[in-house]
Amino acid sequence: MKSVPAAWRWAFVVLVAVVALAVALWPRESGDGAPATPTAASGGGGTVTDAQRDAADLASCPRPHDGASTAAGPLATIDVECLADGSSMAVGKSLAGRPALLNLWAYWCEPCARELPALQQYAGRAGDALTVLTVHSDPDEGKGLARLRDLGVRLPGVQDGSGKVRTAVGAPAVLPVSVLVRADGSIAKVVVRPFDSADDIAATVARELGVDV
C-alpha cells in the first residue's frame, strides 16, 4: 500500500484542529438557559402579553408628582418602558423632587437575583422617602418579567434593553449596578457591587443621599 503523502497528512491535522477550535468556541447556554456571555445584542423576547404582565403583578411605575421640580441631570431626557403596563415613562420627570435608587439588573444575573429581595425589603422601609426602581438591562423583557415573578419581587420596574440608563449615568458594563440619584436629578453615586442586605442598602443610601430609614 502506498504511504499517504506528507502534505495530505498535514492537511488532515490542520482540519482536525480547525474543527476542534470551532467546537470549543460554539455558543453555549448556562444551566439556567441564560446566554453564557449575555450582551445587549442578544435576541429580544418578542411581544410581551398582558398575561405575562399580570402574572408578574408589579407595582406601577412612578409618575411626576405635584410640586416636583423640572427634570434635570443625566436622566432628564431618558424615556423607557414601564414593565407593569408597557407604557412609556420619562425617567427624569418621574423621579424629580425625590431621591431615588435605580437598580440595573438582568434575568440571567445570579447576584442580581440574590439582591432584588433585599431591595424590596428596603423599599418597604423607605416608603415615600425614596423611590426604588428596577431597570431590566437585557432585551428579553419576557424573561425579565418571569424572573421577577419567580423571585416574588413586585417593585416598580422599567425595561431598558438598549442600555439608555447605563449610558446616561456612565455605569460600567457589569451587573448589578445601583445608581443613587439626588432629588435634583444629579447622580450621587454609582454602586458597582451587589448589596448584601436591606441594612447594607440603608447604610449606603444614608451615607450617599442622606436618607436614613
UniProtKB/TrEMBL annotation:
**GO molecular function terms attached to this record:** oxidoreductase activity
Q: Does the keyword Repeat apply?
A: no
Q: Which UniProt keywords are listed? A: Cytochrome c-type biogenesis, Disulfide bond, Membrane, Redox-active center, Signal-anchor, Transmembrane, Transmembrane helix
Designated name of the protein: TlpA family protein disulfide reductase
Q: Which residues form the Thioredoxin domain?
A: 49-210
A cellular component term, taken from the record's GO annotations: cell envelope
Which CDD domains does this entry report, sorted A to Z? TlpA_like_family
GO annotation (BP), single: cytochrome complex assembly
Q: Which subcellular locations apply to this protein?
A: Cell envelope
Q: What are the boundaries of the signal sequence?
A: none
Task: Give the stretches traversing the membrane.
Answer: 6-26
